[in-house]
Design goal:
Elements (H helix, E strand, L loop, with lengths): L1 E10 L2 E11 L4 E5 L6 H8 L7 E6 L2 E2 L4 H7 E4 L11 H12 L4 H11 L15 H13 L5 E5 L7 H14 L5 E5 L3 H7 L2 E6 L1 E6 L1 H9 L1 E7 L17 E5 L2 E6 L2 H14 L4 E6 L4 H13 L3
Helix pairs in contact: 3-4, 5-6
């Protein structure tokens, strides 16, 4: 659905995006994660055919950037970090105005459809400027969806929202995901990305890593079992002589054991510890957050060579 090959954008002497090679599949929610100034918004603007790349090439919905820009704009919807609504127009008049710009064949019907879908129909005659932040964000997403785009670019859709409004927007994104629609999501909320995204790309001017969140975590950290013991004997961690154990660390009364396949190996590990006289309180898997992964990879990426 989206393919880039060496895509780059420079502003004078400043490189905003460098040598981006990316492939986004049809129907997936794809997270694009990176710090402020990493080039995420610039990437969206290039992929939405709003600005031209300095070098490289890309196709969006099978259309080539730089050659079929008008057609690309008909196939994408864009939510910028600020909603960009006309505050002195009502909610429905905002949608009707943009529906006409998009050339929507039945603007009234389409506006009503999305106002009802996003639970804004009862507020349709209210001025956009009087709506809450969460309502304005839903209205802005509705505006981006009016022409039924194949690809939806969302730039920080929950930024600045209170927890309740952010949850409403996240639930809305869940309802929009279909096999026929691709969602390209830029967000600073890493827990949000972990829950919503099929795959994520970590990006800081250049691509740092890309993959499913769980795959990236296992690739960097492996899988680790945490075993809490009651008054373990000194040196018990050194007595675990099982061939599948990659590494064992002890922190007070807790063992952290690196394994390849915990589902099969945990019972053998527990049995061996019991043989060694250990009293086990409980066993669980060490969970690593996407935030931990992000911070470690970004730190490595910024480290001097």
């Amino acid at each position: 659905m989206i393919n880039t090959n060496g895509l780059a954008r420079r502003f004078g002497d400043v490189t905003a995006v460098e040598d981006l090679h990316l492939e986004v599949e049809k129907g997936e929610v794809f997270g694009f994660l990176g710090p402020n100034g990493a080039g995420k918004t610039t990437t969206i603007r290039m992929l939405a055919a709003l600005i031209a790349p300095t070098s490289g090439e890309a196709t969006v919905a099978g259309l080539r950037i730089g050659q079929e820009n008008r057609e690309i704009r008909q196939h994408v919807g864009v939510l910028t970090e600020t909603p960009g609504l006309y505050k002195r127009l009502s909610a429905i008049d905002n949608l009707l105005f943009f529906a006409k710009l998009y050339g929507v064949s039945e603007p009234q019907k389409q506006a009503e459809r999305y106002l009802r879908l996003f639970e804004l129909w009862d507020r349709r005659d209210d001025l956009a400027g009087t709506l809450s932040k969460g309502m304005r964000q839903k209205l802005a997403i509705a505006r981006a969806m009016l022409h039924e785009p194949q690809i939806l670019f969302l730039d920080e859709p929950t930024a600045g929202l209170d927890p309740e409004a952010a949850k409403v927007v996240r639930n809305l994104i869940e309802t929009l995901r279909t096999r026929e629609r691709t969602i390209f999501l830029c967000t600073h909320n890493l827990d949000e990305a972990d829950r919503l995204c099929d795959r994520v790309a970590l990006f800081n001017t250049r691509l740092v890593a890309v993959g499913r969140p769980q795959e990236l975590k296992e690739r960097l950290y492996g899988r680790r079992t945490v075993i809490h013991l009651v008054n373990p004997a000194p040196g018990i961690e050194e007595s675990i002589d099982l061939p599948f154990v990659k590494k064992t660390e002890r922190v007070d009364n807790t063992l952290v054991v690196s394994l390849s396949n915990p589902e099969e190996e945990n019972p053998l590990l527990v049995s061996r510890l019991v043989e060694l006289g250990a009293k086990i309180q409980y066993v669980n898997e060490l969970r690593v957050s996407l935030e931990d992964l992000y911070l470690d990879l970004m730190e490595d990426n910024n480290a001097p060579n």
